[in-house]
């Protein structure tokens, strides 16, 4: 655990609380290692950052790839929750699209390891692919609502939804790479892209 010399632990914690704290430290360290080294981060780098021993690492994860996958899945879940929460707060389809766009770009800069996730290898069944499918399903639902409300003419066909999802992913990478970019302006671009795609 950070602040505790390797091989020593807080004896006032229960075994389960200690395991949770160790895993959390490893996950935080893996997220940091991903930012520093990308997907080539090693177990050695992670345990140095986490302040845990190699055996402790292997109690929680089989290898560095498993830890990276866990961090990326947590980031994908956080990004997914951010857009889902934003979607339920709005009343109209266009307001929903605007809220989702803003929440998406805000989360891209605030969720730990979001940048690493957005730049991760795009493996079938991987966290990035699952997140993209989640965003595309949400966009398809919003477009279907917009069409029912007379705000869109075209149905949410697969190709256009994928193109809109690609725009979401690309702009999220851009703001994650350069937090000085105006997220509000980029979110409005996303709204415009989606509305134009289904006009």
Describe the structure.
This protein has 199 residues and is mainly alpha-helical. The protein has 2 domains: 47 residues, Arc Repressor Mutant, subunit A (Orthogonal Bundle); 128 residues, Tetracycline Repressor, domain 2 (Orthogonal Bundle). Helix content is 72%, strand content 0%. It contains 9 helices and no strands. The chain is elongated. The mean pLDDT is 90.
Task: Give a short overview.
By secondary structure, the chain is mainly α.
Helices and strands in order:
Layout: H1 15-37, H2 43-50, H3 54-60, H4 64-89, H5 93-110, H6 114-118, H7 127-148, H8 158-177, H9 183-197
Order of helices and strands: HHHHHHHHH
Q: How much helicity do the residues have? A: over 70%
Number of strands: 0
Return the CATH topology of the largest domain. Tetracycline Repressor, domain 2
């Amino acid at each position: 655990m950070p602040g505790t010399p390797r091989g020593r632990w807080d004896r006032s914690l229960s075994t389960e609380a200690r395991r949770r704290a160790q895993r959390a430290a490893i996950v935080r360290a893996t997220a940091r290692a991903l930012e520093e080294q990308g997907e080539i981060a090693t177990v050695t780098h992670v345990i140095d950052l986490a302040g845990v021993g190699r055996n402790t690492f292997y109690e929680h994860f089989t290898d560095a790839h498993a830890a990276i996958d866990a961090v990326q899945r947590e980031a994908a879940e956080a990004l997914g929750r951010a857009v889902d929460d934003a979607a339920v707060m709005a009343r109209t389809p266009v307001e929903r699209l605007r809220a989702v766009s803003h929440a998406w770009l805000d989360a891209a800069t605030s969720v730990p390891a979001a940048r690493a996730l957005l730049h991760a290898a795009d493996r079938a069944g991987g966290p990035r692919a699952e997140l993209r499918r989640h965003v595309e399903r949400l966009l398809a639902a919003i477009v279907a609502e917009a069409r029912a409300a007379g705000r869109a003419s075209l149905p949410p066909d697969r190709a256009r939804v994928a193109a809109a999802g690609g725009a979401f992913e690309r702009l999220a990478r851009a703001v994650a790479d350069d937090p000085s970019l105006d997220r509000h302006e980029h979110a409005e671009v996303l709204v415009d892209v989606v509305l134009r795609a289904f006009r």
